[in-house]
Amino acid sequence: MEKVYKDLARHLDNTPGGFPPTESGVELRILKQLFTPEQAQLALNLVMMPEPVEAIALRVGKPAETILPMLIEMGEKGLILHIRKPDGDTFMLLQFVVGIWEYQVDRLTQQLIKDFNEYVPYLMKAQEAHKTQQLRVVPVEKSINTQLNIMDHEHLENLVRSQSKILVAPCICRREHTMVGKGCGKMEESCLVFGGGAYIYESRGIGRTITADEAMDIVRKGAAQGLVAQPSNSVKPMNICLCCDCCCQILSNIKKTPSPARIVNSNFQASVDTDQCTGCQACEEICPMDAIAVTDGLAQVNKERCIGCGLCVTVCEFDAMSLADKQEMERWDPPRTLVDTYMKIAQEKGLF
């Protein structure tokens, strides 16, 4: 029984998101809580490409009608991706993060949360090892100025209003922290999911469908609460997460590093007009990366820590804070689609 979970862990580690081994074996404890041995064995026969049940059945060596009910059940539990189409359903392996974990928002237990929080540092260290990240940071709308060299895919409102279907789902990070008594009190309903992803969430009863206007209201409320906008790292994102630096497993772990700006894929950084700065500390208090410090009555930005979210600009009443473009050599051009993003990460990890 132990072997199938070790095999599945290696299988998931060969996905772009990774699933690195640990000395404690916490990653195996997580898998045992999510997968039965039979489900784990079946997941070993899936790849990160949608396939009909007949193709999977050939690899498994069992009739399609035998494994189909289990695949459907695994899809309903968010352990694999089940795509329903008029011309036939398909099934696909999910990576652990972003993927399996986010679909567990309604299946969390105290033990699963405990084990996941123990495992996150290992997971983040593996993800930080490559240049292309799964998420990127775009500035909040209120922080954008006419001098910025900003592209359409860096405009939050453009990203939202260009979507044909929008769903808002609970943030699993804030939910899990709330469940263990460490919640921050910021809004939980804050993960925007688009297009095909929205239909999949809807089919599983996670979240609710909303209009573009409702989505923008959530984005503005998030900015007011100091949440960082993180779309999936592609020109055409599948989702936008509104993240806090206390509960978000990605931001909170990046914050612990000495140079968050080197990890986060972003094209902007904050700048201070010292003639306008009054040293009020509003920017210092809202900065999610501790990138701003007020010294001798003036705000100063640590460029190694600033991720260009623009939250400091939204709270400055004296027009002293603004966003500036990174140097050309530091600019980030996201892949066109999420598939391209994962292919790029896989190449950087040497999986090809």
From TrEMBL:
<protein>
    <submittedName>
        <fullName>4Fe-4S ferredoxin iron-sulfur binding domain-containing protein</fullName>
    </submittedName>
</protein>
<feature type="domain" description="4Fe-4S ferredoxin-type">
    <location>
        <begin position="268"/>
        <end position="297"/>
    </location>
</feature>
<feature type="domain" description="4Fe-4S ferredoxin-type">
    <location>
        <begin position="299"/>
        <end position="326"/>
    </location>
</feature>
<dbReference type="GO" id="GO:0046872">
    <property type="term" value="F:metal ion binding"/>
</dbReference>
<keyword id="KW-0479">Metal-binding</keyword>
<dbReference type="GO" id="GO:0051536">
    <property type="term" value="F:iron-sulfur cluster binding"/>
</dbReference>
<keyword id="KW-0411">Iron-sulfur</keyword>
<dbReference type="InterPro" id="IPR017896">
    <property type="entry name" value="4Fe4S_Fe-S-bd"/>
</dbReference>
<keyword id="KW-0408">Iron</keyword>
<dbReference type="InterPro" id="IPR017900">
    <property type="entry name" value="4Fe4S_Fe_S_CS"/>
</dbReference>
<dbReference type="Pfam" id="PF13237">
    <property type="entry name" value="Fer4_10"/>
</dbReference>
